[in-house]
Specification:
Strand content: 5-15%
Number of strands: 15
Oligomer: single chain
Largest sheet: 8 strands, parallel, barrel
Radius of gyration: 22 Å
Number of helices: 18
Helix content: 40-55%
Structural class: alpha/beta
Bound molecules: 1-deoxynojirimycin
Distance between the termini: 14 Å
């Protein structure tokens, strides 16, 4: 580390805060990538989501969300943990945003809690919910941090979920009203918007395998939900276009590069079918290509829910597509015991380098999936709206020396740069997550933050990865 870099770091963390030796070694090893390699208009940030960090689940007029209901009335979350308090961001947002500032983080991606704004899903707006997000936005802007808002990161008013949630086409209208209201309330100051977060995760999790709310299991509910969600991403985009001047509008997808096991023809075919579900299902309709039925005939069941005019309604011209990649899948054809309806596959893990989520660490997959999405001619720009890893963290003498995460981030970033240098229009990178938080059905066990949380005291500890990111960001 140069003397200059060292001085910058001590300016951020205080002269007394000695960095762990391993981190120093790691930082030195990282001479290969610099912030400036990505260009001056590349956006750097960290990401979070309302239910995962806010807490304040029933405060100031907030309605019950589907997640509140799920954690309180089912036993499907590990150790029966809840997001009732989570990171208490609802009360601590000011200090958390100040910490982001100290860490040189230029952009903050967070989501709005729909039931905090529209408690029962239709009708009355909760002014205190609007006030809260106004405070968060203003706090970001005062500190020179650019807010990036996600309208839907999985928490909907329970009243709507009880009426069928995404299986009910009426939810589309409620969603449009909600998004339009958000645009009108915050669009004067917020220009970067994402309509949905990872539609595949909550349609599969909630309506196919039942590990997320509403906890339903079955293909019919999944197919129905898929179509309402597909309509909603485009309708939300249009609402933002109408209500926010000069908006930069995107939506985000979970994406997983799919590799066939040993390149055998049957495995290549199986991998193609999985790719349809994992990567193509939600983006192709929005681009005007329709559902990829040809490569996965089972999707005819989704088309059954289309009404006249829907082919047009599902299209929207997004300014950017948000990609979120955490791993890859290797697929083997497995006709005798279908693991996934109509897919007949058996996922295989090739590496022993797994995160606490059981996901294989495979940086090259990031490059591959970016290139796959960039190949769509109507994808104008790609932003990596989430990237990160769950590793076991340990607090020793006040420090969390998460060198595996530092290495993970560096290795993934190198692959992002590789794609960028080959001409992909890449606009930014957000680390998931700013701080440890409620990891859905897994509760608080997997930690993905670059800031650690002690849930007994709500004490924040900047991890070595947070220090590394801060140092990286302060570079030229
Ligand atoms: C994607 C989701 O958007 C986020 O909520 C989740 O915590 C991360 N993946 C990690 O699983």
């Amino acid at each position: 580390m140069t003397r200059e870099q060292w001085l910058k770091l001590t300016a951020v963390f205080g002269a007394g805060s000695l960095l762990p030796n391993t981190l120093v070694a790691q930082l030195l090893a990282d001479a290969e990538i610099k912030r400036s390699d990505f260009g001056s208009d590349f956006v750097w940030g960290t990401a979070t989501a309302s239910y995962q960090i806010e807490g304040g689940w029933n405060e100031d007029g907030k309605g019950e969300s589907n997640w509140d209901h799920f954690v309180h009335h089912t036993r499907k979350v590990d150790r029966h943990e809840t997001g009732d308090i989570a990171d208490d961001f609802y009360h601590r947002y000011e200090a958390d945003i100040a910490l982001m500032r100290q860490m040189n983080i230029p952009a903050f991606r967070f989501s709005l809690s729909w039931p905090r704004i529209v408690p029962t899903g239709s009708g009355a707006i909760n002014q205190k919910g609007i006030d809260f997000y106004n405070r968060v936005i203003d706090s970001c802007l005062q500190k020179g941090i650019e807010p990036w808002i996600t309208c839907y990161h999985w928490d909907m008013p329970q009243t709507l979920e009880a009426k069928g949630g995404w299986r009910n086409r009426d939810t589309l209208k409620r969603f449009e009203e909600y998004v339009g209201g958000c645009g009108k309330s915050f669009g004067d100051r917020v220009k970067n918007w994402m309509v949905l977060n990872e539609p595949l995760s909550y349609t599969v999790g909630g309506y196919l395998v039942g590990i997320h709310p509403p906890g339903v299991f079955g293909f019919k509910s999944f197919y129905k939900a898929v179509h309402t969600v597909t309509l909603s991403q485009a309708a939300g985009g249009r609402m933002l276009r109408d209500t926010v001047s000069k908006a930069n509008i995107g939506t985000t997808y979970s994406c997983i590069p799919i590799y066939p096991w040993k390149d055998k023809p049957a495995n290549i075919e199986a991998a193609k079918r999985v790719d349809v579900i994992a990567n193509r299902l939600f983006i192709e309709p929005v681009l005007g290509m329709g559902y990829p039925v040809q490569d996965l005939p089972a999707l005819k069941h989704v088309e059954r829910y289309m009404q006249p005019g829907d082919e047009e309604q599902v299209k929207f011209n997004f300014d950017f597509i948000g990609l979120q990649n955490y791993t890859r899948w290797v697929i083997k054809n497995f006709p005798l015991l279908p693991m996934v309806h109509a897919l007949n596959i058996k996922p295989k893990k090739l590496s022993t380098d797994l995160t606490e989520m059981g996901w294989e660490v495979y940086p090259e997959g990031m490059y591959r999936i970016i290139k796959q999405f960039a190949a769509y001619k109507d994808v104008k720009k790609i932003v990596l709206t989430e990237s990160g890893a769950a590793f076991k963290d340990e607090l020793v003498n006040g420090e969390i020396n998460d060198v595996r995460r530092v290495k993970y981030l560096q290795d993934y970033l190198k692959q992002v740069l590789r794609a960028k240098n080959e001409g992909v229009n890449l606009g930014g990178y957000f680390i998931w997550s700013f701080m440890d938080n409620f990891e859905w059905a897994e509760g608080y066990r997997p930690t993905l933050g670059i800031v650690g949380i002690d849930y007994k005291t709500q004490q924040r500890t900047v991890k070595a990865s947070g220090k590394w990111y801060s140092n990286f960001l302060s570079g030229k």
